Predict the structure.
Amino acid sequence: MSMHLHEGASFDYVVVGAGAAGSAVAARIAEKGGHSVALIEAGRDDPWIWLKIPLGIGIVLTGERAVRRYWTEPEPNLASRKVYWPRGRVLGGTSTINGMLWVRGDPAEYDRWADMGCTGWDFDSLLPRFRRMESCSLGSDTLRGRTGKTCVVEYSPRDPLSLAFFKACTEAGFAANDDYNGERYEGVGYLQLNTRRGLRHGVREAYLRSLGGNRNLTLLCDTTVESIAIENRRAASVRVRCNGVARTIACRREVILAAGAIDTPKILEHSGIGNPDRLQGMGIEPVHALRGVGEGLRDHLHTRLSFRCRSVVTLNDIMRSPARKVLFGLRYLFSRNGFLSSSTATVHALVRSAPGKARPDVKLQMHPLSSTDARNPDRWELDTFSGFGIGTFPLRPASTGSVHVASPDPREPPRIRPNYLDHPEDLACAIAAVRLARRVAAQPALAGLVDEEVRPGTDAQSDEEIAAFIRETGTTSYHPVGTCRMGVDAMAVVNPQLRVVGLEGLRVADASVFPTMPSSNTHAPSILVGEIAASLVNSR
Ligand SMILES: Cc1cc2nc3c(=O)[nH]c(=O)nc-3n(C[C@H](O)[C@H](O)[C@H](O)COP(=O)(O)OP(=O)(O)OC[C@H]3O[C@@H](n4cnc5c(N)ncnc54)[C@H](O)[C@@H]3O)c2cc1C
């Protein structure tokens, strides 16, 4: 499947980026047969054990081995802080380093996409595809997939903190939901994870490894695409850099960009595709005007409350006791469950911030650990006391930002401006979410475990005080989307068939095409985009 690159190589299809969406596109085209596919990935195929054991995410995210460490520009509404934005740079992309929470999303939001002109993206049309993606034993046969590529299981066993959080949510008035990927999205439920026998089951495992020695697919790792060459309004080849050497790979049918919401717009701009004024100002010759490239960025701003816990039931307790660590490790080895089989989140509640809201607009999430400073990966440390956190974020941020090249040199990182809290509704919703988390913590089922609220602490009561906490500590939930938005309006970068508007032989298939935030988490929707792109290509 892998090969070394030589000048003059050419393929029918060139897929850029072996992440969540790119791996799905490339695998499905190769599986169909009849065409050659090159899957080009900047990272390597890394057998590192911490990319397989779910809790390894803590180690992976603080290093650089499998991660590209992006930072945003100073954020005007977050006390001018730069926010750490890691992305997977490894075979499988961010799917190989993420939290593995399997969340399809809010059906009503997909219906909204269809109403915005994205024909075919309504939830009823997407449901068969979601089912085809997964293999799980949860929920009903008509709504869940039983034989798809990605294994999905529910977090288990039910540890005391997760049980208490779940019950407290119901005491606070939120409905219990035994399958948020099924009949209903709203409510409190145990998280579903894409793991298999306690190990990560991301796209690397589900789509690429399962292909075996498929001869249609050529995997080019450690190879970075710098730009696309457009000839007669058609994507003709990609310019890559491999081991410091520049090469060109020709493409006979289509280039499919799947480098993620940060790198896809960057590659387009380096190819001269974007806002001509911006490109000229950067010393890049405009080739095709598309003003939406790099605009429309959205992300979830995550605010986490921490509590000192009365019982020795947190991950903090396990990690600071060598004896407990050994027991914990042995238990995982034998049963393949428990905290090591998850990425630290165990239960979530998708709820309405106020009774008048038409659908859930806030997420609350139990983390059975607490840390000193979640903002900087070089300072992440667990608290020395028994602690847990409740993470919160508004589900459908209205604020939008941008990603644009910062230099004519493709090796330079782009400028990322999320523009968190630019829209007043987002701040109001984030404050309401913090208040809801406190309401849950005060319910009988959880209150008995809470010694004190450590962050922000009970002194922060007014909207202004809570807002100050959000601005000082809020960080990414790692879900950037929307920078090459799909649509039918003047700012759309791709049409509903994922073709770059005005050009031939070029599609975008990754989280950058989402018109809005579809879900509380973006992995399953990104694979979905890859699946859809492959069907569109395969039905040509
Ligand atoms: C820490 C973290 C935790 C997360 N947890 C969850 C979760 O629990 N559940 C969930 O639903 N979502 C989660 N997400 C988000 C989710 O994983 C992403 O939304 C999803 O992977 C995006 O898919 P993608 O295909 O758009 O991009 P990616 O998966 O990021 O793939 C892009 C690929 O392109 C490659 N690439 C980039 N530039 C180039 C180039 N120039 N040349 C060649 N290759 C290139 C990258 O190396 C990467 O492999 C998390 C994200 C992070 C960072």
User: Anything to note?
Assistant: The first helix runs from residue 20 to 32. The chain has one domain: 10-538.
